[in-house]
Amino acid sequence: MGAGHAHRLYRRGDSPVHRLPPHTKLAAVLGFVLVVVTTPREAVWAFALYAALLAGVAARARVPAGFVLRRLAIEIPFVAFAVLMPFVVPGESTTVLGVSLSVPGLWGAWNVLAKGTLGVAASVLLAATTELRDLVLGLQRLGLPSLLVQIASFMIRYGDVITDEMRRMSVARRSRGFEARGVRHWGVLAKSAGALFIRSYERGERVHLAMVSRGYTGTMPLLDERPATRAQWAGALALPLAALPLCLFALLG
Amino acid sequence: MHVPDGFINAPVSAAAGVVAAGAVAVSLRGARKELDERAAPLAGLVAAFIFAVQMLNFPVAAGTSGHLLGGALAAVLVGPWTGVLCVAVVLLMQGVLFADGGLTALGVNITVMGVTTVVVAWAVFRGLRLVLPRTRGGVTAATFVAAAVSVPASATVFTLVYAVGGTTDVPVGKVLTAMLGVHVLIGVGEAVITALTVGAVLAVRPDLVHGARGLTAPLKLRVGGELVDAVPAAAPEPARAGSPKKLWAGGLLTALVLAGVVSFYASASPDGLEKVAADQGIDAKAEEHAAADSPLADYGVRGIGSARLSGGLAGVIGVTATLAVGTGAFWITRRRRAAGSGADAGADSGARV
Fold it and tell me: Do B5 and A163 touch (CB under 8 A)?
C-alpha cells in the first residue's frame, strides 16, 4: 500500500502517453476498439494499419514490443477456440498441406484472432501507461456511478491485501504438510475460501467503521478536479480518429 | 472464459452493454437497501474476495485444475444485488487492468458471467429454500443445485448471444452442444466447491450468509430465570424509492426494443449463418440436425427463411424469458420478506445510521 503501489501491468515512465489524463485515454481506447470491431474482416490491410497505429502509440509511450507481446498471452484460451474453427465450420472447403479446412471457418478464426489481439494490445497499452488510481478516477470522470467507482476503488485498494491473505493461508497449509492433489482435498480448500470470505467481510466492516468515525457519509470527496484541456483530448483521440477513416474506407470499398 | 473483442458483433455487444448497465443500475438501488452506506466498503471487499478466490486452484486430476467462477457464491453469501455489483466490478477491473476480456465485450461478459449466474443461482436457491427443510443442510443443498444450474445457464445465454451476434458461422446447435457438454461438468465442480465454501461459512458465521437469513434462532432474553423472546427492534418504515413501476416499465421497453430492433440489424449482416446455409445449400441438413438438438437451435435455423424476423424474435423471446425468471425471483423474495419475522426486518433496517 501507500505511495509507489502499482499493478502488475503498469510500466513506470514519463512519456506523452503517460501524462495524458486517464479519462481521455479510456475514451480513446474504447473508440479505437469499437472502430476495430466494426471493420469488416475481409479488409486485411486495415488490420495491418491498425496494428501499425498501436505500434506507433507503443513507441511514443516507450513501451517495448516484448512487454506488449508477453501480455498478449491472456487471450490463449480463445486462440484455441479460433484454431478449432476451420475444422468445425461447414461450408466451402479448401486444402492446405493435405488438410481440408473450411473457408468461412478460416475467415472466422482470422476475425477473432485479429480483432481480439488488437483489443488486448490496446488494453495492455492503456494499463501499461496508467496508474490504478488514475484509471478509477478516469472511469469516474467518464460518468460511472459514484457508488460503483467507490466499490471498484475499494476492491483495488484491498485486492492485494486479500490476495496476500490467501497466500498466507496457502503457506500455512503447506507448512503443515498439506498438498492439494485431487478432488479429495477440495474440502480443505473450500474451508480456506470460507475463512477468507469471513476475514474479507469482517475487514470490510472494520474499514467502514473506521471511515464512519472519520466522517464518512457515503460519498467520497473528489480531491483533484483537473479537467482535460482541448490539446490533451486531441492527443488522446488521435488514435481512434486515425483509425476511423480506415474503417470507413473498408466498409465502403 | 472472458469474451474478447471481435467475438460478438458491435450492435449485439452494444445491446448487451445496455442490458448490463441496466442490471447494474437496478443492483445499485437494491444494494443500497441491502447494505446502506456500508455498500461501498463491504461490496468492495467482497469483490476483492471474489477476485482472490478466482485464483484459488482446485486440482481435479493429474495436472489439471479448475477455479471458481463465483457468481452463485456471491449470490448466496451477500445477496443478489451486491452479488451482481461485485461480479460486475471484478469483470470491469479485469477488462481494464488485465486486458482480460475485451472492452467492447464488457457488456457481454457482465451479462453472461455476472448477471446470468447471479440471477439464475438466486432464483433456484430461493425456490429450493421454499421446499427444502430450513436447516443448514437445506441451505447447503440449495446452494449446490443453484451453483450447478448457474454455470450451464450462463453457457446457454452465451450461446444465445452468439447465435444473434456471433461473427463466425459455427452452427448454433454445435456451439450449444459443445458449450453445454463442457459447462455441465464445470457446473458440477463449481457446485461442489460453492456448497463446501458456503457450508464452511455457515459453520462459523451463519449470520454472514445472506441466503441463510432466518436460520438463526430469534434472540432470547433470560428474565428471572426463564427465556422470553426479545422484543424486536421497531422496524422503521422502509423509504419509498421513487416509483419502481416506472423504472420497471422503462427498462422492459428499452430491453424489448433493443432486442427486437438491434438484432434485426444484426441478423441482416451478410456474413451470418443464414448466408452460408443458403449459399452452400445445407438448409435441409441443418434443419434436421438442429431440430433434433434443442429448441434454442431452432431459432437460428428457422431464421433461414426470414432471417430478420427470427433474429428479432429470438431477442424478444430472450428478454421475455429473462424477465420471467427475474420477476419470479423478485416476487419470491418480496413475498418471503413480507412474510419474514420481525427480527429479520429489524436486521435489514436496523443498521441504518
Answer: no
Tell me which of A105-119, B54-68, B267-281, B314-328 is least confident.
Answer: B267-281
Q: Give the chain B residue whose CA is nearest to the CA of A118.
A: B5
CA distance B298 to B278: 16
Nearest Cβ partner for A182 among B52, B61, B93? B61
Name the pTM for this structure.
0.71
For range A91-114, the mean pLDDT: 75
Q: Is A215 exposed, middle or buried (0-12, 13-18, 19+ CB in 10 A)?
A: exposed
What ipTM does this complex have?
0.82
Closest CA to B74 of B59, B84, B88, B63: B84
Provide the terminal-to-terminal Cα distance of chain B, rounded to the nearest Å: 41
Rounded to a whole number, what is the distance in Å from the CA of A159 to chain B's nearest CA?
Answer: 5
In degrees and rounded to multiples of 5, residue B228 shows phi and psi of: -125, 155
- Collect all residues of chain B within an 8 Å Cβ-Cβ radius of residue A148: 24, 28, 85, 88-89
Q: Say if B39 is an interface residue toward chain A (CB within 8 Å).
A: yes
B185 Cβ under 8 Å from any chain A Cβ: no
Residues 65-84, chain A: which have Cβ within 8 Å of B? 71, 74-75, 77-78
B102 inside 8 A of chain A by CB: yes
The residue type of A55 is: A
Alpha-helix residue ranges (DSSP H) falling in chain B: 10-35, 39-53, 71-78, 80-98, 106-109, 117-131, 136-165, 172-204, 244-257, 263-267, 273-280, 283-293, 295-302, 307-339, 342-349
CB contact under 8 A, A166 and B208: no
Letter string b/e over residues B147-160, b meaning 16 or more CB atoms within 10 A of that residue's CB: bbbbbbbbbbbbbb
Return the domain boundaries, chain A.
16-138+227-252, 144-212
Interface contact flag, B53 A193, Cβ < 8 Å: yes
What gap in Å lies between CA B209 and CA B212, rounded to an integer?
Answer: 5
> A27 touching B, CB under 8 A?
no
Three-class HEC string of chain A: CCCCCCCCCCCCCCCHHHHCCHHHHHHHHHHHHHHHHHCCCCCHHHHHHHHHHHHHHHHHCCCCHHHHHHHHHHHHHHHHHHHHHHHHCCCCEEEECCEEEEHHHHHHHHHHHHHHHHHHHHHHHHHHHCCHHHHHHHHHHCCCCHHHHHHHHHHHHHHHHHHHHHHHHHHHHHHCCCCCCCHHHHHHHHHHHHHHHHHHHHHHHHHHHHHHCCCCCCCCCCCCCCCCCHHHHHHHHHHHHHHHHHHHHHHHC
Quote the CA–CA distance of A47 and A65 in Å, as a whole number. 18
Question: What's the CA gap between B190 and B187, in Å, rounded?
Answer: 5
Say how many CB pairs under 8 Å bridge A and B. Answer: 276
Confidence of residue A70 (pLDDT cuts 50, 70, 90): confident
Q: What percent of chain B has pLDDT over 70?
A: 59
Asked whether the beta carbons of residue B96 and residue A150 sit closer than 8 angstroms, the reply is: no
Which domains, ranges and CATH numbers included, belong to chain B?
10-217+247-348 (1.10.1760.20)
